[in-house]
């Protein structure tokens, strides 16, 4: 199922671009979190990312994001970390991956693009993936894409 008019919004967001094979995403996340911790940035949410490249490529490009408590940002430019005081994307389509992320994420990815095609919508953002947790403690992912 695809939901229309979805929005993602966060305050004080740090981000960094990474290139990795899909099975190495944990290494990118660990590196990103370690850099932020080194400069005393306190996370206020969970990491989410934008898939910049096609998810079927062997090496993918993604921008990792993490909301942080700090509103002043003093990380050296050499770390290649960007900071946004506010991050918001609206007019999005969204679907959820509830169980087997590795298998179902491909199905859900193409479901989003099928929905766009059926309604003659144009993609205006990369696909964002937010890892969330239900009130029962189950992890799931929301995949969303901005459309026109």
Report on the structure:
The protein has 148 residues and is of the alpha+beta class. Helix content is 22%, strand content 45%. The protein is built from two helices and six strands, in the order E-H-E-E-E-H-E-E. The longest helix has 18 residues. The two termini are 19 Å apart. 22% of the residues are buried. The mean pLDDT is 93.
Furnish the topology, listing elements before pairings.
Layout: E1 3-20, H1 25-38, E2 48-51, E3 60-67, E4 82-97, H2 101-118, E5 123-133, E6 139-147
Structural class: alpha+beta
* Nearest-integer average pLDDT: 93
Task: Determine and state the CATH class.
Answer: Alpha Beta
Largest sheet: 6 strands, antiparallel, barrel
Give the beta-strand count. Answer: 6
Query: Which bin fits the share of residues in helices?
Result: 10-25%
- How much of the polypeptide forms β-strand, as a percent range? 35-45%
At CATH level 3, the topology is Multidrug-efflux Transporter 1 Regulator Bmrr, Chain A
The CATH architecture term is Alpha-Beta Barrel
Can you count the helices? 2
Concise overview:
The protein is an alpha+beta fold. It has helices at 25-38, 101-118, and strands spanning 3-20, 48-51, 60-67, 82-97, 123-133, 139-147.
List its salient traits.
148 residues, 2 helices, alpha+beta, 6 strands, six-stranded antiparallel beta barrel
């Amino acid at each position: 199922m695809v939901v229309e008019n979805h929005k993602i919004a966060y305050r004080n967001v740090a981000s960094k671009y990474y290139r990795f094979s899909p099975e190495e995403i944990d290494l990118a996340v660990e590196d990103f979190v370690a850099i932020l911790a080194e400069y005393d940035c306190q996370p206020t949410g969970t990491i989410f990312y934008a898939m910049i490249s096609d998810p079927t490529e062997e090496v993918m490009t993604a921008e990792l994001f993490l909301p942080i408590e700090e509103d002043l940002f003093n990380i050296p430019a050499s770390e290649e970390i960007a900071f946004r005081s506010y991050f918001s994307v609206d007019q999005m389509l969204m679907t959820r991956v509830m169980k087997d992320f590795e298998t179902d994420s491909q199905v859900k990815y193409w479901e989003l693009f099928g929905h766009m095609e059926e309604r003659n919508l144009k993609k205006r953002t990369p696909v964002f993936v937010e890892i969330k947790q239900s009130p029962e403690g189950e992890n799931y992912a929301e995949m969303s894409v901005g459309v026109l």
